Amino acid sequence: MSNPSATIDNLVIGGGLAGSMVAIRLATAGRQVTLLEKERSAHHKVCGEFLSREAVDYLRQVGVDPLELGAATIRYMRLSSKRKVVETALSFTALSLSRFTLDAAMLSRAAEIGCDVQRGVFVDRLTTQDSLWLAQLRNRKSLCAQTVFLANGKHDLHGWGRPSTGQCDLVAFKLHWQLGRAQTEALREFIEIFLFSGGYGGLALVERDVANLCLVVRRSELRRIGGWTELLAAVLDDNRHVQYCLQGAKALWDRPLALSSIPYGYLAGRPSGLWCVGDQAAVIPSFTGDGMSIALHSAALATEMYLAGESANQYYRRLHAQLGRGMSLATLLSRIMVTGAGRNLALFGLSLFPSAMRWIAASTRVPEQARLAHPEPPPEPQGEAH
Ligand SMILES: Cc1cc2nc3c(=O)[nH]c(=O)nc-3n(C[C@H](O)[C@H](O)[C@H](O)COP(=O)(O)OP(=O)(O)OC[C@H]3O[C@@H](n4cnc5c(N)ncnc54)[C@H](O)[C@@H]3O)c2cc1C
Fold first, then answer.
1. Could you tell me if residue 257 is inside a domain?
2. How far apart are the first and last CA of the chain?
3. How many domains in the chain?
4. Does residue 244 lie within any of the structural domains?
5. 109 C-alpha to center of ligand 1: Å?
6. Cα angle at 137 between 133 and 140, to 5 degrees?
7. Cα–Cα distances in Å, from 265 out to 47, 63, 170?
8. How far apart, in whole angstroms, are the C-alpha atoms of residue 107 and residue 12?
């Protein structure tokens, strides 16, 4: 392992939405920042790709507009289970854009405003030494930093694992499809949420009329059924509406992306001085469609508090106060939804009370009063008077 070169001020590990947001906001405030992302180029991620209004607001604040990148508009939700289908209007206009496009745009934005973005760099380990951080890289180099923002998302960095949480027995799959013409039109402006034995999922158009199918299933159910092929067959058999949506559809990849051991309900609080953001700070169950907004919010909050001279511990306390209630409610609902009784209840509730869905959506989002504005860039240095 080579010796680290000069100490850098701010290191961001991970170039997803949270990492890019930290980098952009630090660079805007005139701070030096280096961001390391393990993937060499734009890549797909397991995600429903549904952007809530709060997420869109945070993205626009930093100059990334999903609509300009081709995002699809979503105004309605359709919930289906077995043979039943109910619809309701969303209380806000949402957007849907592939993570392939969105994350690449955020990283470009970070580089554009002066952040040192290094792609294809995998951080293997992170340790502390004399109140500095040492990041050991897979390329056998290392970096020394005064402050580290941990934004490595779904997977844990060696030695910095998140503990098991409220619901960590789900496996997620995601696959892009080209739907039939009629099905594409029927899906326009809708997000489909579907329930099936042991799990739930979503289907929505992203840019260029590609449809994104993303679902989670209990690990025990998946084991019982077999694998992805058997699971998809079981979902189509169980839910007639999803069967119709995928009739004649063509999968755009050979295999779906998969992810296991998602620590739903996790809310960070590390006593180490490390600034964890995004999924490293909070993991809300997927059906709320608010993970990205929480990732962006935690990144904005951490950066703001850091720039104001507050500590990482103070940041975690604030984050708990803002998100704790919504996270507990979402995790409880997610647990209920993967049970047979839960899915009947969900349909019954939605058909009787569309406003119940609005209440759930409002209760599991980043509270309005907690949302942050983009900071002003520092003033230009004044030239000497002539
Ligand atoms: C099944 C599922 C469906 C979801 N659907 C939605 C939805 O519809 N809407 C919504 O708002 N949210 C959704 N979410 C949540 C959302 O995907 C996450 O909250 C969000 O991606 C978190 O962003 P992040 O930046 O923290 O992590 P990520 O997006 O995972 O980014 C982390 C980055 O770090 C990089 N990295 C990882 N390890 C290293 C390393 N060691 N060294 C260097 N780089 C590293 C990765 O390559 C990656 O680019 C869903 C999540 C799941 C699991």
1. no
2. 53
3. 1
4. no
5. 18
6. 120
7. 17, 30, 12
8. 12
Specify whether the backbone of 279 is left (phi greater than 0), alpha (psi in -120 to 50) or beta: alpha
Structure tokens at 210: 């590609």
Decide if 72 is inside a domain.
yes
239 falls within a domain = no
Asked if residue 192 has its Cβ within 6 Å of ligand 1, the reply is: no
The CATH number of whichever domain residue 33 belongs to comes to 3.50.50.60
Q: Whose CA is closest to atom 39 on ligand 1?
A: 152
Calpha distance 301→290 (Å, rounded): 16
How does strand 142-150 pair with strand 84-96? Answer: unpaired
pLDDT digits (tens, 9 = 90+) for 214-240: 999 999 999 999 999 999 999 999 999
Percent of the chain predicted with pLDDT > 90: 71
152 lines ligand 1 (CB under 6 A): yes
pTM, full prediction: 0.94
- Sort 376 into a burial class: Cβ within 10 Å, 0-12 / 13-18 / 19+: exposed
pLDDT digits (tens, 9 = 90+) for 322-360: 999 999 888 888 888 877 667 666 666 666 556 666 777
- For residue 99, report the distance from its CA to the centre of ligand 1, in Å: 9
User: Facing residues of 12 across strands?
Assistant: 35, 149
CA–CA distance from 241 to each of 92, 195, 203, 216, 289 (Å)? 25, 10, 11, 18, 21
Question: Residues 106, 17: contact at Cβ < 8 Å?
Answer: yes
* Alpha carbons 245 and 139: distance in angstroms, whole number: 45
Q: What is the pLDDT of residue 357?
A: 67
DSSP output for 183-212: HHHHHTEEEEEEEETTEEEEEEE-GGG-EE
Strands 211-218, 250-251: pairing kind: unpaired
16 C-beta closer than 6 A to ligand 1: yes
Which residue, among 12, 11, 107, has the nearest Cα to 64 in the 3D structure?
107
Closest protein CA for atom 41 of ligand 1: 123
Distance 2 CA to ligand 1 centre (A): 30
Q: Which of 341, 327, 353 is nearest to 263 (CA)?
A: 327
Its domain, for residue 314, covers 8-166+262-370
CA 302 to chain centre: 16
